[in-house]
Amino acid sequence: MESNSSRRTSRESRVMDKEPQNIIVKVLGMDGSSILFRINQATPLRRLMLSYCDWKELVVDDVYFLHNGRRLLRDDTAQKLNMTDGDVIHEFVHQTGS
After folding, report:
1. What is the pLDDT of residues 74-97, one digit of tens each?
2. Strand 22-28's sheet: what is its strand order?
3. What is the mean pLDDT of the chain?
4. Under a CB-based contact definition with an 8 Å cutoff, are residues 92 and 65 in contact?
5. Closest of 84, 95, 93 to residue 26, by C-alpha
6. What confidence score (pLDDT) does residue 90 get?
7. Which stretches make up the Ubiquitin-like domain (predicted)?
8. Residue 10 burial class via C-beta count within 10 angstroms: exposed 0-12, middle 13-18, buried 19 and up
9. Would you state the pLDDT for residue 96?
10. What is the sign, positive or negative, of the torsion defined by CA atoms of 48, 51, 57, 59?
11. Rounded-to-integer distance, Cα 74 and Cα 77, Å
């Protein structure tokens, strides 16, 4: 017979598995630098992008980011993209020429 406390623990763990968690992702710059970010999986990646550009003194509209070959949108979340701890995001600067 299962006790109430073990049922409650099992139910709580199922709920906790569905809640967004914090993960650490690495952003690799075109210059070879890397920065680690701790992000909540449900938070839009816009915050990471803005923080990265502030740190690197880049204009956010001049930069784009790729994860597994897919261009990231500002409203994307790590949860939506199935990102996991340790994933890498690549930064690229738009090239303009004459």
Report:
1. 999 999 999 999 999 999 998 876
2. 34-40, 22-28, 88-93, 63-67, 70-71
3. 87
4. yes
5. 84
6. 98
7. 21-98
8. exposed
9. 76
10. positive
11. 8
Please identify every stretch of the chain with a pLDDT value under 70, giving residue numbers as ranges. Answer: 1-19, 97-98
Chain centroid to CA 53: 15
CB atoms within 10 A of CB 33: 11
Give me the pLDDT at residue 98, please. 59
CA distances from 81 to 13, 31, 43, 58, 72 (A): 23, 25, 12, 25, 9
